[in-house]
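Q: What changes when nickel (II) ion is included in the input?
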Amino acid sequence: MVRAWFMDDSDADQRLEHMTDPPQFVDLDYLKEQGVLYWKLDADNWEKEGKLTQIRSERGYSYEDEITCTPEKLPNYEEKLKMFYQEHLHSDEEIRFIVDGSGYFDIRDKNDKWIRIECLKGDLIILPAGIYHRFTLDTKDYIQAKRLFVGVPVWTPHNRPNDDHPARLEYLKSYLSQAK
Ligand code: KMT
Ligand code: NI
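A: The predicted holo structure follows.
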């Protein structure tokens, strides 16, 4: 089961868990209310398992590649990791299937609070277009993930504030219009 929790506001290392004391976990339904989708897949057997193929065809993901976050495999490693951790949004979904390692996706909930989502080997996570979010490695410093996309990929991050971005407006309309 995915673990996700409200973050504390300490400015300690971004790679730490940043749980509050006591921890305040959120469940899948809460993530779904913010438009975040999640599946657990068999990372060692995903081809046979067929779930990824099914999700790919249902959602029209025609593009796929792999990213490995290590200084050797990721060009401009330091710079990229800094970029990933700047709060931003995209014009499209961000889809990641973790084939090895782990890391955290942080998303802003409807009350603009940070929720940290622990992504482990076998997790498939979809962030909706227009959600403010960021990514960090954890203290193990290693993740390898498949990136999926509909059509030609656009990875451009639009850093916050970008409240008039069409994807932001669409996101607000779809998910936050009844937010309390
Ligand atoms: C991103 O866009 O934040 C990433 O691709 C992070 C590495 S993949 C989990
Ligand atoms: Ni992103």
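Observations recorded in class: The mean pLDDT is 97.
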